[in-house]
Amino acid sequence: MNFYDEEIKKLVQKDNFRQIHNIEEKYDKYLTVNGQKMINFSSNDYLNLSTNRTLIDNFLTKYKNTNEFIFSSASSRLLTGTSRVYKQLENNIANLFKKEACLLFNTGYQCNLGVVSSLVNRDDVVFSDKLNHASIIDGMKLGTSEFYRYKHFDYENLEELLQKHRKNYKKAIIISESVFSMDGDIANIKKLVELKKKYDCLLMIDEAHAFGIFGNNLTGICEKENLLDDIDIITATLGKSFASMGAFCVSSKTIINYLVNKTNSFIFSTALPPSNIIWSNFLIEENFNLAKEKSQKLQNLINNAHKYLKDNTTTQIIPVIIGDNSKTINIAEELQAKGFFVLPVRPPTVPINTSRLRLSLTADITFEEFKSIIDTVNEVLK
Ligand code: PLP
Prior knowledge:
seven-stranded mixed beta sheet, Aspartate Aminotransferase, domain 1, 2 domains, single chain, binds pyridoxal-5'-phosphate, globular, alpha/beta
């Protein structure tokens, strides 16, 4: 047996082998697998905009005959891959965040990978929350700076690390997600701002799971907590609430100019297709009110859901931690059989022995549907 067969066998033995699902149809809050239609409780399409037929039809009617409605940029942004619509989208996003400048990336993964690996160098250091997304971890591994990972949300641990190590490096950057993707808990951004000021660091926040949901301009938690001015770099994806593809970094003009010149994942990759950029603009510029309406609907569901759960969290992501891999798989399958599409999340996506169901709420799910999945989870767990 060769190395790869062995590795697969080990994954299967640990109930940790992943397979790509055969999803037959996705529409609004529903999804069909093997002929069974279920409510999708595993979606990042938080505002249920991605399959909205009216939006798609309006978009096509308006843009399909325009010159820029094409499906390839056929070039990197620095060659011939930038046209008016890219700048328009970057300006729209920078204005929403009230930041000087914005730079688009092809995905959130490429954005974090590139930004983290290029912003700090050999004489520098990163302090990163232990549960930060793989794209941030991979960025630290790819870069040449030293990095330290503080215990999740343990800001005393972060301060100990800052006290001990900050002085040994030139530049330093603290990195955290705002809403954590697998736990749905929210970082204490105010504390992070305090520490970044005290220890002369840059502060970078990934708003992937908050952009489109929180704050008056829907930019996320930093805006909601009135802290935007104190955050040096914000990244987020367009592939979740804003139902598109791509991602961005907002910051000062200087930092964005630096990234344009130094970030390989930006420089050496074909830009997103113009048709996709026009769709993102269509959602952000022309249909912002619809997004706000949907986010309000989602907020109401989130509030009612957490009242029902009697917990202290306030986001659309609700983890049900089971621990064991095979038990988590079995419970997910039982829930699927009962009409709720829930997936088991296992290591390395989450720490060992914390396998879980990750329930995500989307705008069009009703409170009754939410109650019904929670009651079913409780029954299955008995
Ligand atoms: N950052 C976080 C916190 C995420 O959860 C994700 C998830 O996909 C990403 C970045 C990557 O974004 P994208 O899917 O656009 O690559």
